[in-house]
């Protein structure tokens, strides 16, 4: 499964980068495949391990902020691995004028 999530502290002002970095640090230290962009951090693995990382990432922000917002989206496809990379590669092939492998 792939989970894309965003965790942000509430009530701490506009500059939340330091808090978000705490959450991303948890994800990166998990050892699971992950990617962070301007809006979300995506992480790939089995249900229990991914949700545990998300929970710990939220806890890292919650430790410094009294209120936390979590947005989460999941792609649940049993048996699929390396979706974090392969989904992007498929789109890139189409953009390059190629076709998806059968």
Automatic annotation (TrEMBL):
Thiamine-binding protein domain segment(s): 3-92
Entry-linked Gene3D superfamilies: 3.30.70.930
InterPro entries membership: MTH1187/YkoF-like (IPR029756), Thiamine_BP (IPR002767), UPF0045_domain (IPR051614)
GO cellular component: cytosol
Protein origin, superkingdom: Bacteria
PANTHER family: UPF0045 PROTEIN ECM15 (PTHR33777:SF1)
Annotated family: Belongs to the UPF0045 family.
NCBIfam families cross-referenced by the UniProt entry: MTH1187 family thiamine-binding protein
Protein name: Thiamine-binding protein domain-containing protein
Source organism of this protein record: Streptomyces noursei (Streptomyces albulus)
